[in-house]
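hi! just following up on the protien thing from before. the input was this:
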Amino acid sequence: MPAAGVGRRALVDRIVAVAQRLRQDDVVMSVLHSAPKLAMVYIAERLGTSQQILLDAVAGEIKLAQEEGSVRDGDPRQLAAMCLLITQSTIQSGQIVAPILDADALADELAHCLNGYLKP
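and the predicted 3d structure came back as:
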């Protein structure tokens, strides 16, 4: 998913859009549901290649947003790691709160969380 500009709003919008796509991806959701042991390796034990790529991309965007002034100070990689944890949790567990938060509400709340975490 290409970046749509620099700054916290563009970064959060991009993260939320990726999360929505992953929640709708048949392969990703199939692994979470039918191969939980495999999924747990990448949830609780180690970062996979895709996660490393996402961390690097988000850290780079966070650094640019810090320079622009819309993201708080802090180590960009650490902030990116926390964004990954928040977003992964939303992807993994969204279905258990579906009666409370439909897909649109879940996306809105994820955006609210990430904006609050990253704002100066």
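The CA atoms of residues 23 and 91 lie 6 Å apart.
The mean pLDDT is 90.
cheers
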